[in-house]
Amino acid sequence: MSVTDEFATVVPPPNPVAGHHHHPNLTPDPEGTRLQQALDFVRHPNNHKQAFRFVCVGGSGYVVTTVTFALLVHAAGINDTVSFVLSSLAGMANNFWWNRSWTFDATHHHIGKQGVRFLTVACLVALTAYGVYELLLSLTGMEKVLAEGIAYILVTPFSFIAQKLWSFKS
Question: Which sequence spans correspond to the domains of the chain?
Answer without folding.
Answer: 1-33, 44-167
